[in-house]
Structures are given as structure tokens and as C-alpha cells.
Amino acid sequence: MANIVEEIKRPINEEMKLFEQKFYESMQSKVPLLDKVTRFIVTTKGKQMRPMFVFLCAKLIGEVNEKTYRGASMIELIHTATLVHDDVVDESFKRRNFFSINALWKNKIAVLVGDYLLSKSVLLSTDHKDYDLLGVISRTIREMSEGELLQLEKARKLDITEDVYYEIIRQKTATLIAACCEIGVLSNNADETLAKKMMNFGTYTGMAFQIKDDLFDYLSSNVIGKPVGIDIKEQKMTLPLIYTLKNASEKDRKYYFNTIKRYNNDQKRVKELIEFVKSSGGMDYAIKVMKDFQQKAKDILEEFPDSEARKSLHSMLDYVIERKF
Q: The whole model's pTM is what?
């Protein structure tokens, strides 16, 4: 899979190398502690797929320019801030096999660092009068927050319908990928119609991405390198589970709702529910929906002339649903 990511990155290799330096510069502070933490963030970075979306979408209609780099930095600042805050909320002490910021510097500093990164993303747009990008990132931050809160509200009652689930994952996950794609074309002065089209492309891609993540909860830990049933233990209602319970008999529905509510830490009951989801077609249904979103995204790409950027975005869509982690 690492080779696939490198192949996707090939048309923007030079841009990604330069981006790393620009991203670090966008986080710099005169406060020594902040500078120490931001250096740590740079050294523990992930695949940086979101900046890749920004650069590839910019190249889809033009060239990468300084505004593109700023847009990619804004996105990565927001993404990093949300990960820092998520680790505090989830009381998670590891990320990408490194200690998390809250593990090393405690919650108070982690929350303040996350706030600082969000403020830097806004300042990066206002300092350069990129008000169109400011509108995109402001909307994105609002929607991501609303999505998290909607999921928390619904998790208490376990009454998530399929439509509510789609709205949660659109806001929580897809909205940031949509922002990447919209910002990419806006950096090349795209009109409103084109910006909206690429926002839709990113939304469909993000929906497929999140459904794939949800499917991992039902796969063997040998395949993905993490325990199965984590979402069930955390009482998260994902698409395979929602579909299965909706189509189950009244007796089965009550029994498995009880598993989620009261026996979510009982390994035997959780495993039993996972097998029920598999045998009831919950995974097959989620895979079909995921592929439908992927196809909608591919249909939008077909409207653009053939190019290296378009090929990489096609490959990215395949990677989103074929990845093993």
C-alpha cells in the first residue's frame, strides 16, 4: 500500500517536499514550548493525504501556486488540531505508534496547542486576504464540531437512522476532504460552479473513506493490526450495524441492542454481534454503499480532461476503499 501512495504522489512530489517546510513555518511560534510541540508534530506526521488532495485538485485545472500552499497548510493545521483534541477527548495516549501530545505534555497543553493550530489556520487566510479560503475553513470547522456533537447526542440513545449516520460522517469526516478539493481549485480562481463540483467530489470520497473505516471494526485483527469490535465497545452505531438491526427480527433487535447498551465490554457478546452483522448482510450492504459513493466521485472526475493529476485522483479513490488500515 505504501507503494500505491508513492505512485499517487508522483505528480506532486516536489510540491509535497516544499509543503513540509511551509507547513512547519505556518506553525512556528516565539513561545519555546509551542515551538517544541510543533517540531514534534512535524516529526510524527502521517501520510498527509489531505494536502495531496489540495495539490492534485489544483493541478486538475492549473498549477500549484503560493495560495495552494497556504490552502494546504490551513487544511493540515485544522486536521492536526482535531487529532490533538480527539486524543484528549478519547483519553488516547498513542497516535501512529508515537506518544500523543496529551501523553507527553498533559491535557491542558494539548487543548491549548489544538486551539493555537486552529487560530493559525484562520490567520494564514486573513494575513494574505484569502477570504474565499477563510469561508471554506470556517464552515469546515463548524461542521466537524456539529458532527461530533450529533454523534455524541445520538450515541446516548442509540437511535441513529441511516440518514442521520450519513449526516454524521459527512460532517465529521467528509467535510474536511471536501474542503481540500474545494480549496485546491479555488487557489486557481475557480468559479462557484467548479468549486461546488469539487466540494461534492471530496464529499463522496470522504463518505467512502469513513464507511471503509467502519468496516475495519468487523475484520480480523491479523488483517488490520488492531482489535475488532472497538466501535461496538464504544457504542458507535456504524452502517453495517444500523442496516443489520433495522432488518433484524424484533427478538434479535432487542437482544443485540442489549449487547450494545449493557454488554459492550463482554468479548463473547461483542464477537457474537460481529458474526450476526456479517451473516445478516450488514457488511455487504456497507460495501455496496461505499462503492456507490466512490463511483459518484469517479463520475465527477470524468468531466475533466485526462492528466497526471486526474489519474492520481482516480488511484486515490481506489486506495480509499482498498486500503488495509
A: 0.91
